[in-house]
Design goal:
This protein is an alpha/beta fold. It has ten helices and eleven strands. The protein starts with 9 loop residues before the first strand and ends with a helix.
Length: about 300
């Protein structure tokens, strides 16, 4: 029996519970040659992305880590939820607890981009959390309304394209904050975002993931922000905050507050980038690897 090449991840699934029944969450597991590493790194993507966003980071770390990159429910290869209002952080945290049980890891390092960082924040704050090092990629307890409005303007639009190249061109127009990429790098980030329907291409996610965002009231947003600061202040593990210097999601004042309270995060800014660094560039990978390896 031959093993799968370590240059590609293995697709696995775990069954999770929600208010309407069960759903399957997909996750991509990267393993080093010779078997799974004891050290586990979980990488979780942003609101409208998917687990293959972390291919470059996973390849850079796979020799020393078992790198696990879930497709959060409603995205990628995961099921869609029957109740659109269940696309909430509480659901995602419950799913990740189930995933961590499947992984049977005593300790976990966590890398979360945007929404993935909020999930990691909530998990790391729980008593007895297995998260021992936390990376929050361009996100904090306070999210700038300008960034939310920008994302809400395109989230869930019923768009299709004639080719992957055409889709890549469109996604580039709404992803300027990701920073510069070569065409090959951008196509590699784009292809997992697409599904073919007949002779057209569409995005990989359930358009209903935007329903809770559009239902958010100012009072709900304020309550959510207060809860996230409470969670952040409860975190005890070493924490690294990455920030795109031009981010419209994580503003400088929030990053400064994160450095001063709770786990007193180390903050690293990437110039010329907004929301959010993709961790494809060599210097970005190096910053993450150095922080994670400090805990080994």
């Amino acid at each position: 029996m031959t093993s799968e090449p370590i240059d590609q991840p293995r697709l696995r699934h775990v069954q999770c519970l929600d208010g309407r029944g069960l759903h399957r969450m997909a996750y991509w597991q990267w393993e080093r040659a010779g078997g799974s590493a004891e050290r586990v790194l979980v990488c979780v993507h942003g609101l409208a992305r998917q687990g293959r966003d972390f291919d470059t980071l996973a390849r850079a770390l796979r020799e020393g880590w078992r790198v696990v990159c879930p497709d959060v429910v409603g995205r990628g290869e995961s099921d869609r939820l029957a109740d659109p209002m269940a696309y909430q952080i509480t659901t995602y945290v419950a799913d990740m607890v189930t995933l961590l049980a499947r992984l049977d890891a005593k300790t976990v390092h966590w890398f979360g981009t945007s929404m993935g960082g909020l999930i990691g924040m909530a998990l790391a704050a729980l008593p007895g959390s297995p998260i021992t090092r936390l990376v929050l990629n361009d996100v904090g307890p306070t999210i700038d309304p300008a960034g939310i409005a920008r994302i809400g303007a395109y989230l869930g639009l019923p768009l299709t394209w004639a080719s992957e190249e055409e889709a890549a061109d469109y996604l580039l127009t709404i992803s300027q904050g990701f920073g510069p990429h070569s065409r090959d790098e951008w196509l590699a980030l784009t292809r997992p975002m697409l599904r073919r329907e007949g002779d057209r291409w569409r995005l990989h996610y359930d358009p209903a993931i935007g329903v809770p965002l559009r239902a958010m009231t100012p009072a709900m947003a304020a309550a959510g922000e207060a809860a996230l600061w409470d969670a952040y202040d409860a975190i005890r593990c070493p924490t690294l905050v990455l920030r795109g210097a031009e981010s419209d999601i994580l503003v400088p004042a929030t990053a400064a507050a994160m450095a001063a309270r709770g786990p007193k995060a180390r903050v690293h800014e990437f110039a010329g980038i907004g929301h959010a660094p993709t961790i494809v560039a060599t210097d970005q990978v190096a910053v993450v690897r150095e922080f994670l390896q400090e805990g080994t």
